[in-house]
Amino acid sequence: MVFHVRSLGRVSLCTFCLICIFSGTLSDARGDSSGTHTPESATKPGATQDSISTDHSHPRANPPKASDTTGVVTLDKIVVTGSRRQRLLETSQSLSIIKPSEWIGTNKTVADVVAEQTGVQTRRYGGTGSFQTVSIRGVQGNEVLVLLDGIPLNSAMGGAVDLGAISPDRIGEIEVYKGITPGEFGGNSLGGVINLKSKSSIKAQSLSAQTAFGAYGYQKYSIETNHSFSDKSRIFGSLNYAKSDNNWPYLDRNKTTLGPSATDDDEIRTVENHHYNFFEARIHPSFDMPGGRTIVTGVAYSISETGIPGSEGSTNRTAKHGQDLFVITSRLSLEKPSQSSNIVFTPEIGYITWADKTFWTSLDESMGTSHGSIASAPNSYGESKSDLHIVHGSCVADMFFADNLGAQVTIQGKHSQIATTTHVSGFPHGDWPGNSQELSLAGDVNGSLPVGRLSFGATIGGGIQAIRSATKGGKNEVFTMTVVPSDTMEYPWYVHGGIQCRFEKVLNVFINAARYSKIPGLREKYGTNGAVMPNPELTEETGTTLEAGARFLSSRFFAEAVLFRTETHNGVVMLSDGNMTKPVNLASSMTTGIEASLWVQPWDFIRADLRATLQDAENRTHQYKYYGKKLPNEPDLSALGKISFNPIKCVEFGYWLDYKSFFFRDFNNTDGWRVPENKNDPGMFFHNAQISWKPNSHFDFGISIRNFNGNSFRYEEMARSAESGYSWVLYPANEWCFTAGYSF
Q1: 77-95 in b/e burial notation, b at 16+ Cβ within 10 A?
Q2: CA 708 to chain centre
Q3: Which of 108, 126, 351, 658 could form a disulfide with 112 if both were Cys (CB 3.0 to 4.6 A apart)?
Q4: How far is Cα 69 from Cα 71, in angstroms, rounded to an integer?
Q5: How far is CA 398 from the centre of its chain?
């Protein structure tokens, strides 16, 4: 079996205190690395180790004494610390930790990988490089907090974060918090947290190159290097390029889906105008400072362009969407705090600029409600651009009051500036700039009580935000309306608490509850792109979550089961009549269910994984007879089963089956919006396989295929302003990919 293990990432104080429960006291935990467990199979011949670390050192990650080296294993000049499975056992909330081993050798996106976890669904609006979001426990993507190296990517404009714009090649680890949001992230998130951690430098010399090519014109080339200038300074850098034609075949029904002759004009067509090009450059220097401090800095720039194809029965010839993303972060961490440290500060600062560009002409027949009318204006074009600038600063303070009592306080500040540019001809259009400032204070208090072989713990936390939202206003030409200047202050808050019980190092039982709130985004309040009506009267959304779960861990077995219930109230939905859209506070929902995860490794050469979510995602909106219907894009049952085995040295085979029961794509659960459409089909199966071969320490090869022996599902999607320009979802068939790499 292949196991990828990396250095312990940034772990909450709650986790730190729970590690202390294992060892009895906080002071003992500081001097004992027994909370760090390296799987036996990680040291066996043929095991694969990552040459790049996430390097997110933090005192909450169970710091050892300076003289303690039992938690570090040196293998082929690569430092391996920590264990993902042990971290999962130690945490007292729903948490998935995802390593590159789950996407290496495939063409999976970040959203694809996240959606393979329990309780998570993805919405895909095209092929490689297209807009892609996820929902967590029935809560839509615009309510999910997404961070990249500690910097929130969620825009003050509102809407979901585009996970399709983030290359998985830059990621060293992904954390998915599905229930309680830790205070270190600001705490206030209705839909949980996706914490993306970039690869960073390690104290080693390395150089690697990777190439990949696959179905529908997919190609990828990357190079990574790591260099240590001295014992105290090192640097990591990478270059990545990817492209795809995204030209798979699909069934075109030519907009005739009803009646006895509906299938007479059906034909197999190839997706057109859906090319994708992507380039990214990254550099991450690290410097060890006096007193055990480390400065970790990252600079990354990426640029991409994707053609926007027409919806089924339509053709787009020129429409395209582009994104430029620039990120710079810097963090000062203390890797090994002294025994006498009663408080440890971890400051971080970051800057992001995210440019979003859409271009279309009258030759494009389907561009959604915000752009579609231009097709009726000959020789016209439109070009809209939004530049989002974010400056973010935070400081996490870990405080140790006693052996069994600690706290964590986080203060964050964020400034968002939105600049807009619109050029159109023959079609009225409107957009306007805005800005937002946020200041938040969050805190968690954690306590534990050892009683023999059992340990009991409790956590309570909360926080408050002060959010200023402002716009200079503008002219909405479509509605001949003027959006007046606005400047408002709002104060959302949250609170959460939980209890835990542990039995030695094998069992953890926990119960958590929380209440959250969210302020609508600037564009939800003031409209955008001409065809979205302003609604400055929008009020905050609220939600509650309750979960109870248990985890069991042994050397060859891990099991987890979590019962959950999530409710949202006063949510913002976009009502559309086909020509215009208006955001309103109408949405309410309740999702109850159970998540189960299991892996078992009976022998060194074989491992089986099973993940399943059974849920009832119910619409609680009273308007339009939606109450009691299923939420869109939320199947009742999702399951993934995977088996991996390597009977031959250096060769690993894998097969996984993904199943989703039927779901609807609209709030009214219309038969025409059912997936799959045939009522006799209870759901969809997706077969996938992968083979990897590492003949020696320098070369590696792999081939994978996703959704083989299946059909390319393509379904039209309801238009929404935050997702304008992306009008459909799909499951392409037979996505094969071949990879080859060299490293030294």
Answers
A1: ebbbbbbbbbbbbbbbbbb
A2: 25
A3: 108
A4: 5
A5: 26
Decide if 653 is inside a domain. Answer: yes
Average pLDDT, rounded, for the chain: 80
Q: How far is CA 33 from CA 15, 62, 66, 594, in A?
A: 14, 7, 11, 34
Query: C-alpha angle with apex 580: 574 to 582, nearest 5 degrees?
Result: 35
- Cβ contact 580:478 at 8 Å: yes
Amino acid (1-letter code) at residue 22:
F
Closest to 427 in 3D by CA, of 485, 366, 489, 374 = 374
Type of residue at 269: R
Q: What is this structure's pTM?
A: 0.84
- Listed residue (124, 160, 157, 161) closest to 529, CA to CA: 157
In order of 169, 203, 283, the CA distances from 331 in angstroms are 22, 18, 15
Tally of domains within the chain? 1
What confidence score (pLDDT) does residue 541 get?
92
pLDDT beyond 70 at 29: no
Render pLDDT for 35-92 as a digit per residue (tens, 0 to 9).
333 333 333 333 333 333 444 444 443 333 333 333 333 333 333 334 555 666 667 8
Tokens of 274: 């859906």
User: For residue 447, what are its two tokens?
Assistant: 């306590």
Quote the CA–CA distance of 245 and 243 in Å, as a whole number.
7
CA–chain centroid gap for 443, Å, is: 24
Q: CA separation (Å) from 105 to 61, 169, 699?
A: 30, 11, 13
For the stretch 523-532, pLDDT in tens is 777 766 556 6
Enclosing domain of residue 250:
13-254+274-425+436-743
* Nearest alpha carbon to residue 438 among 406, 409, 415: 415
Residue 207 has pLDDT above 60, yes or no: yes
d(CA 68, CA 23): 15
431 falls within a domain: no
What pLDDT band is residue 623 in, cutting at 50, 70 and 90? Answer: confident
Q: Are 319 and 725 in contact (CB under 8 A)?
A: yes
Least confident of 169-173, 351-355, 479-483: 479-483
Residue 142's SS3 state is helix
Chain-centre distance for alpha carbon 66: 35
- pLDDT of 609 over the 70 cut: yes
Token output for 195: 């914490």
- Asked whether the beta carbons of 267 and 293 are under 8 A apart, the reply is no
Three-state DSSP class for 331? Answer: strand
Contact by Cβ (8 Å): 382, 362: no
User: Which run of H or E residues covers position 14?
Assistant: helix 13-23
Residues 6 or more apart whose Cβ sits within 8 Å of residue 694: 46, 48, 650, 651, 700, 701
Q: What CATH number is attached to the domain comprising 91?
A: 2.40.170.20
Per the listing, tokens 């083989």 go with 708
Q: How many residues does the chain have?
A: 744
Alpha-carbon separation of residue 598 from 15, 474, 546, 560 (angstroms): 22, 54, 22, 6
Is the distance from CB of 206 to CB of 53 less than 8 angstroms? no
Structure tokens at 471: 């716009």
Q: Is residue 259 part of a domain?
A: no
pLDDT in tens, 674-731: 888 888 889 999 999 999 999 998 999 999 999 887 666 665 543 333 433 333 556 7
Q: Let me know if 45 is exposed, middle or buried by CB neighbors in 10 A (0-12, 13-18, 19+).
A: exposed
Q: How many Å apart are CA 358 and CA 362, to the nearest integer?
A: 14
| Closest to 585 measured CA to CA, from 601, 569, 597 | 569
Residues whose CB is less than 8 angstroms from the CB of residue 165 and which lie 6 or more positions away in sequence, other chains included: 129, 302, 304, 323, 325
Cis peptide before 428 (omega within 30 of 0): no
Judging by beta carbons within 10 Å of its beta carbon (0-12, 13-18, 19+), is residue 569 exposed, middle or buried? middle
**More confident: 8 or 379:** 379
